[in-house]
Amino acid sequence: MLNGKQVLLVIGGGIAAYKCLDLIRRLRERGAGVQCVLTRAGAKFVTPLSVGSLSENKVYEDLFSLTDEAEMGHIRLSREVDLILVAPATADLMAKMAHGLADDLASTVLLAANCPIMFAPAMNVAMWQNAATQENLATLTLRGLKVIGPSEGDMACGEFGFGRMAEPLEMIAAIEDHFSVAAPLSGHRALVTSGPTHEPIDPVRFIGNRSSGRQGNAIASALAGLGARVTLVTGPVGSSLPKGVEIMRVETAAQMLAACEAALPADIAVFAAAVGDWQVKTMAAHKIKKADGEPPSLVLAENPDILKTIASGPGRPDLVVGFAAETTRLIDNATIKLTEKGCDWVVANDVGPGSDVFGGTENTVHLVTAAGVETWPKMSKQDIARKLAGRIAETIGAKNMVTSLGGEKEVGQ
């Protein structure tokens, strides 16, 4: 249920912070990605090293970091996740959330968030029962924030009562309940391709391109976040691969086609990979050496057309989405591709000089369908992935409704 979900864990300053280490491990076991913000007080109880080792991500602590904040890190952190969990939510953190204070990274991220927030209170029983804390609790729950716990029991201070932070499995159950309400692609299989292909010239050289795989990886993660069972077929990439999806690694276009065919049947197919159009007809058995300054002559052969093969072959997915990376006549070329390849949608993006799309973190795309062209504003590749995944979920849901009513599927409508 948590496959592909992205959770931001804000770790507050309390002895219960040690439970967050187990919580991170259990979230990762269930396929969730975990980013962590560690407050200054939280770092007194758990170290950035232990948190980062378990999450396998950078740990964020400083609102005024010259590197993180150069790209408005506190805004990005609050935008790239599906859920924020505050644990332990101390009396101080609850007060900051209730009154909109933003004097450190944690409180600033929480104030800037536009995703659901859950919090697990932990504090002394007298602090929990204090009228100020109870008023803050009422304010937060009235705003739609979900509270987990606290429970009753012995406390580190030697007192007994309500104020113990919920156990990791209790928090996991609450998170799973939250996501079980909305999983529009649950029960659907998705195939996503990503990254470049490398066509070998000899044992040490290849023909390739500059694709980083970030956009395709983000799409795979976003589809998994909506409940789909995702197979990601990826060429050689340096960027990290998403959690909670099946990974198939390939090098060449021929290998990518074989992997895609092996991943069928699927309900959804998104071909975001930048597949090389040509391969060297005959790969040299040994490294090609210079010979009197004469460059070698390479004879090229056309690679298989993966998008066209899957879109026109047996077991065609209900929705087939292609990508068009162009340097000229962007919309014209994408429209031609829509027709010639037999796909339902084409996501067109300009990769010309100065675009910084290959290897960058942002993109500007145009969604080309039989109904026309829809231009999306420039946004992060993660936001594009979420928007595209949402559009896919809406379309698949509409198809299911038509089928359940006894009608015919109208692919791409």
Q: Give the fraction of residues assigned to helices.
A: 25-40%
The CATH architecture term of the largest domain is 3-Layer(aba) Sandwich
Strand content: 15-25%
* Count of runs of 4 or more consecutive helical residues: 13
Average pLDDT confidence is: 88
CATH topology of the largest domain: Rossmann fold
Order of strands in the sheet with the most strands?
Answer: 13-12-9-14-17-18-20-21
Specify the structural class.
Answer: alpha/beta
What is the chains' assembly state? single chain
Number of domains: 2
CATH homology group of the largest domain: CoaB-like
Description:
There is one protein chain. With 413 residues, this protein is an alpha/beta fold. α1 crosses α8. The two termini are 29 Å apart.
Task: Provide a brief overview of the structure.
This protein is an alpha/beta fold. It has helices spanning 19-29, 48-55, 73-79, 91-99, 105-112, 125-129, 131-142, 168-180, 214-225, 253-263, 306-312, 330-341, 381-404; strands at 6-11, 33-38, 59-60, 83-89, 117-121, 146-147, 151-154, 160-164, 189-194, 199-202, 205-207, 229-234, 246-249, 268-271, 278-280, 300-302, 319-326, 345-350, 362-363, 365-369, 372-375, 379-380. The chain folds into 2 domains: 6-180, Flavin prenyltransferase-like (Rossmann fold), CATH 3.40.50.1950; 189-404, Rossmann fold (3-Layer(aba) Sandwich).
